[in-house]
């Protein structure tokens, strides 16, 4: 709460306890209503802290409040946060990520930085100890006494980072949660934490519990971080969040051919989305991942489904008709999984429209030409 200017903090502190305890996002938009999300719901916040669905009744932050917010989240040094501003977010103490909206400034067609920042999305980071306990047994490679190369998949805000954080803790602590793995040793885990969300490191020291045998490269790009890990930290398992660039795929291939297991996440809804993204499609087609974990969420309840590489390839070759795009989190559960017999079903029948594999092309590093300021 100390991140927020006094007038805004007083509003947030008056919110009902049920909203504060399950708070996920606080959206501050200049001259527009203050919004929060909690569970699978959203609401606008009145000046007295009560919640409403009517945006015209909500507290409206002005220009001065937005300026004060920017000063606080950059620790009164916008220039020191220039690299984070270029990427569109700032990660603060505790692993909370603040997304920024404003006017982008371009340099040779690439985003140089943001200015006239008028929107903030504060995403609340929380550790869920034990979250990975029911998932990890389905990822084990019993012959090698470790995990299979695994990709965790879901749309945004479904729990990928929370899950990967607790899986890293389990692997580093030797909490395999399977009777056949009781005598297995723990593993050396290397976390490449590009957005400082997995470990929430402060001065290089994780503030979230990642177990006793975990090393973290904080604020390091994924591809470079994986290479650095391989060269100097001898990890047995590398953990990365939100892969999707060609250089990420190259680094992952380098890791698996060095005998290191990979645990990664990516934005997608299902197998069809995985095979629709060129980088993920290439990794999947090459059989890089031995298991996929698909997450869906309704309120506080998170469902998971584990699919083997073989099952993923079979699903990708079937045909079905679907609506492109993720289902909103507040939609009825059945609309998310139309073919599931019941929420407790352990097997989910999913088919994917057959299509040619996309061609992988390397993007132009310089980008398109354009105005310096757009």
Structural notes for this entry:
Helices cover 25% and strands 25% of the residues. Mean pLDDT is 84; it is low at 319-326 and 333-374. The chain is globular. It folds into 2 domains: 18-123, Beta-Lactamase (2-Layer Sandwich); 136-336, P-loop containing nucleotide triphosphate hydrolases (Rossmann fold), CATH 3.40.50.300. The protein is α/β, with parallel strands linked by helices and 374 residues long. The two termini are 34 Å apart. It has helices at residues 6-13, 17-21, 63-73, 82-87, 160-173, 222-232, 246-256, 271-276, 278-285, 309-317, 333-336; strands at 23-29, 35-38, 41-45, 51-52, 89-92, 96-107, 110-123, 140-141, 146-147, 150-154, 189-193, 214-218, 237-240, 261-267, 291-298, 301-308. Residues 336-349 have a biased composition (Polar residues). It comes from Cohnella herbarum. Keywords: ATP-binding, Nucleotide-binding. GO terms for molecular function: ATP binding.
């Amino acid at each position: 709460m100390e991140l927020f200017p006094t007038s805004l903090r007083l509003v947030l502190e008056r919110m009902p306890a049920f909203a504060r305890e399950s708070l996920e996002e606080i959206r501050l938009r200049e001259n527009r209503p203050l919004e929060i999300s909690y569970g699978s719901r959203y609401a606008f916040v009145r000046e007295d802290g009560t919640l409403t669905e009517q945006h015209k009744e909500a507290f409206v932050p002005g220009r001065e409040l937005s300026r004060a917010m920017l000063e606080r989240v950059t620790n009164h040094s916008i220039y020191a946060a220039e690299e984070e501003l270029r990427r569109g977010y700032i990660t603060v103490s505790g692993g909370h990520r603040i997304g920024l909206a404003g006017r982008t400034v371009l340099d040779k067609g690439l985003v140089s930085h943001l200015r006239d920042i008028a929107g903030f999305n504060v995403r609340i980071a929380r550790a869920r100890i034990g979250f990975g306990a029911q998932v990890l047994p389905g990822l084990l490679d019993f012959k090698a006494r470790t995990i299979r190369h695994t990709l965790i998949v879901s749309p945004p805000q479904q729990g990928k980072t929370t899950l990967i954080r607790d899986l890293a803790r389990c692997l580093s602590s030797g909490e395999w949660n399977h009777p056949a793995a009781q005598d297995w040793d723990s593993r050396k885990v290397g976390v490449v934490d590009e957005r400082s969300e997995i470990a929430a490191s402060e001065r290089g020291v994780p503030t979230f519990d990642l177990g006793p045998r975990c090393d973290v490269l904080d604020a390091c790009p994924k591809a470079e971080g994986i290479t650095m890990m391989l060269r100097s930290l001898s990890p047995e398992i590398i953990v990365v969040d939100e892969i999707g660039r060609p250089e990420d795929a190259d680094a992952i291939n380098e890791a698996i051919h060095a005998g290191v297991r990979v645990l990664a996440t990516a934005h997608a809804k299902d197998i069809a989305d995985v095979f629709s993204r060129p980088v993920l499609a290439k990794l999947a087609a090459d059989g890089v991942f031995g298991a996929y974990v698909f997450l869906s969420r309704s309120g506080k309840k998170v469902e998971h489904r584990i699919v083997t590489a073989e099952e993923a390839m079979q699903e990708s070759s079937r045909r079905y008709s679907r609506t492109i795009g993720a289902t909103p989190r507040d939609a009825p559960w059945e609309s998310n999984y139309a073919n599931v017999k019941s929420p407790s079903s352990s097997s989910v029948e999913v088919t994917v429209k057959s299509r040619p594999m996309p061609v992988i092309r390397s993007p132009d590093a310089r980008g398109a030409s354009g105005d310096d300021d757009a």
